[in-house]
Amino acid sequence: MDYTIPAGTRIGHVHLKVSDLERSLKFYRDLLGFEVQQYYGDSAVFISAGGYHHHIGLNTWHSKNAGPAPVRAAGLYHTAFLYPTRKDLADILKRLVDAGYPLTGAADHGVSEAIYLDDPDKNSVELYWDKPVDQWPKDEKGNLLMVTEALDLKSLLHLAG
Length: 161
Description:
The chain is an alpha/beta fold. The longest helix has 14 residues, at about 85-100. The chain has two domains: about 10-65, 2,3-Dihydroxybiphenyl 1,2-Dioxygenase, domain 1 (Roll); about 80-160, 2,3-Dihydroxybiphenyl 1,2-Dioxygenase, domain 1 (Roll), CATH 3.10.180.10. It is globular, with a radius of gyration of 17 Å. Helix 2 crosses helix 3 (about 155-160). Helices cover about 20% and strands about 25% of the residues.
């Protein structure tokens, strides 16, 4: 195997099938704060952070009024959104708590802190921030040791403005 993907490669966007475009926008736009960049007729919308053409595409092309995808089937496990700072993660957590939006989990992964929730179509969403690289846990050989431990939500909420 001689090929390695270039280090600067990033995931450009995620395109999700949803059953109700407006209901999904209430979650992604109104709750999480993504900005609408463009509607594509009445069956798709492109949203982003910071004015990028789109980080998320939402469409009803094959899913209008459909139920959620089965949990026990191949498919997308979750979409993860990386926040720049721990304070930013704290602010979105406070927003979710204030809105009474249910979380499905929270974890300290050693390299990051994450909160988990489902969008209205039961697509799993991870909201997280990366700890500084020099704090990432490693074994004696320098290999990364990711973990799943309890996240101190009270401490995180204390940072929220």
